[in-house]
Amino acid sequence: MKTHIYPYILLLILTGLMRSVSAQEFNYWLNEVGPQSSMLSGAVTAGVKDNSAIYYNPAGLAYVENSSLSFSSNGYSLGVLNIANGAGQNLDLKSFTFGAFSQIFSFVQKIPKLPISLTFALINTHYSEIKTDIKNDMYYDVIPSYEDNEYFIGTYRYYNKIREDWGGFGYGKRLRPNFGLGVSAFITYRYTNYFKSQTADVYPDDPNLTSYELLANSNFEEELNYNSYGLLFILGASWQFQKMKYGLSVTTPRINLGFVSTSNLKKSVTIENQISDTLNYRTTMWRSDVKSVYKSPLIIDLGIEFPLSGLTTLYGKLSFFSGIRTYKILATPQEDENLPEFIDKHFEGFTNMIISQKALANVSFAVQHLFSEKFKLLTGFRTDFNPINKKEINVFVDSYPGQTYWNIYHLTAGVFWFIEKFELSLGVDFGTGRNKNSQQFINLTEPTDENFLFGIPSKTSKVRYNQLNISVGFTYTFQKK
């Protein structure tokens, strides 16, 4: 075995052991697929000719010239989320995640002497993880009817992990030298592990007490474990006219496979107050192994590729995402009982959770420059607008299994090396998002008896989100022409 092969074997082993992290939840373009396509910010609908064509435009499979095996991974990912004043004045909500994730494992078989290629792929299309918790304790006059200040302890915890994987087959055929069609079929799996709680405890301020006697307590908690299987198809066309290349790709909405899609939901509310006339209430609701639904939009991608010279190429893509009307995740209905008004205020739809996404468009463009036959540079930019329909969903009030609502903008860059039958890539993807004058998720600095020991959230928080992915890729071509 030649010595230059060893680094690739080591790379394959290391990337196979990694997992992914990120600090967004429902954005469509959070992750890209494939080493070259990722560095070009996904702007490859018109000219994709590698294994990622099964995802971006299966018509590109018709132009694949060699059978190959591809493995790629976001080698290392660092996500930093800071929501200034998110839990009250000078109480920042922070999430720090570090790890990595595999993007794609695929195999392309070129049919000898025919303009046809077949491919199989396992793809991770989405992986996000947010974990934040905070505690605030202080002396504060929470209950006016009680003498002097009380000792207040407030906490807020949030965790949300989402993963979506696709497995499927693709087929591409060149009908003419400059025109090809393709189709892909995928089984999809989406998993969510969501938890949120907020608690407030009030004790008497008495230095002579050796143990505290609880005067009042509030606790709101919700937990969702969600599994959804589906089926979708991608139809693609690729056309070349003179130097220009054009691409069209249509991804169908997900067909829900309800017989294997189940969820578990639990919510609880506890209100206890020994001093004031505030309602004392305790309830817990859980629904186990209930059939669940996850919907995805109709996606239409339009792509263009234009060579500026023999060494430099421009890429562009415009994508349209259809809207998704408000729907309940748990498919089996259950009517809410006659609950106190304050529960409806904090948990709209107490026995279910809802999602609603608006129609939107994203854009990406990129540049590729060949320095030599064995080395090239790629760079790109893409938008990643958040699809939450704010007219239908209030992330601070409604039973919505998410917390993020801001837009992300990505800058990508990378290099490719070619060594005999091997291709090695190294790239970076920097994503950033900002949001000013945002509403606090909770107020633990100004608690009031009337608001069940919590303060009234104000629009004084500020979101700052940054993520850096270091991407590595490995492709082995079985036979070079």
Textual characterization of the structure:
By secondary structure, the chain is mainly beta. The chain has a single domain, classed as Outer membrane protein transport protein (OMPP1/FadL/TodX) (Porin), CATH 2.40.160. It is 5% helix and 56% strand. It has four helices and 19 strands. The strands form two sheets. A 14-stranded antiparallel barrel has the order 1-2-3-4-5-6-7-11-12-15-16-17-18-19. β17 and β18 form a beta hairpin. The longest helix has 10 residues. The N terminus is likely disordered.
What does this entry show, briefly?
By secondary structure, this protein is mainly beta. The chain has four helices and 19 strands. The relative contact order is 0.19.
Q: What name is given to the CATH topology? A: Porin
- Report the CATH architecture: Beta Barrel
> What structural category arises from helix and sheet content?
mainly beta
Q: Give the name of the CATH superfamily.
A: Outer membrane protein transport protein (OMPP1/FadL/TodX)
Please give the count of helices: 4
Q: For the report, how would you describe the main beta sheet?
A: 14 strands, antiparallel, barrel
Order of helices and strands: HHHEEEEEEEEEEEEEHEEEEEE
Features of the shown structure:
single chain, about 475 residues, mainly beta, Porin, 14-stranded antiparallel β-barrel, two-stranded antiparallel sheet, 4 helices, 19 strands, about 5% helix
